[in-house]
Amino acid sequence: MSSDFESYEQDFGTITAEITNKIGRIPKLSGEEKTQLVLNVDKQLEEVRELLEQMDLEVREIPVQSRAMYNSRLKSYKQEMEKLEKDFKRSRIAYSDEVRNELLGDDASSSENQLIKLREERAHLLDNTEKLERSSRRLEAGYQISVETEQVGQEILANLHSDREKIQRARERLRETDANLGKSSRILTGMLRRIIQNRILVFILGAIILLTIILAIYFNLRGH
Known about the structure:
By secondary structure, the chain is mostly helical. Helices cover 94% and strands 0% of the residues.
């Protein structure tokens, strides 16, 4: 899981370095080139926001014992993002003032400036449309994940139901086995009791026979 976080960190470093470079170039440009650069920076800042969201999600999945370190790193990245947004905001304010001064101060080029403004608005509209499409794709992905999660949940419930039936059948067989064991135990006890009784009878009969023989011998000897 931390490898994903580190991959996002690399993307974050690359994109923020590009943004910093472009923000520094904005005051040095003019016209359509400056407009396109402003729009490009705005788009990249949106990508960085999405990266931070992904990093935040990854941190929540990291084991608790390692989470503090990643939270600290994520916090520093958010602070860096805030600084970039402030720098870009100052740059855009200066850029807007420059465009407004050009529109008010040069009537001869007003048509061209209006065209630039229309292009800027169109670019903003296209950028917003792209953001909506990305949000729509994220929603669709989230919906797909929820559907798959529901399917997995249903499969788990079906497996649990099947396991429950197996356990119940095993309990029934165990009860039958206990009943059979009890019956066998009673039979064996009865057989053992009869064996003991028979041995006692054999012993008694043997004693009687032996006593009879002894008495017969005794009386025989006395008769002589």
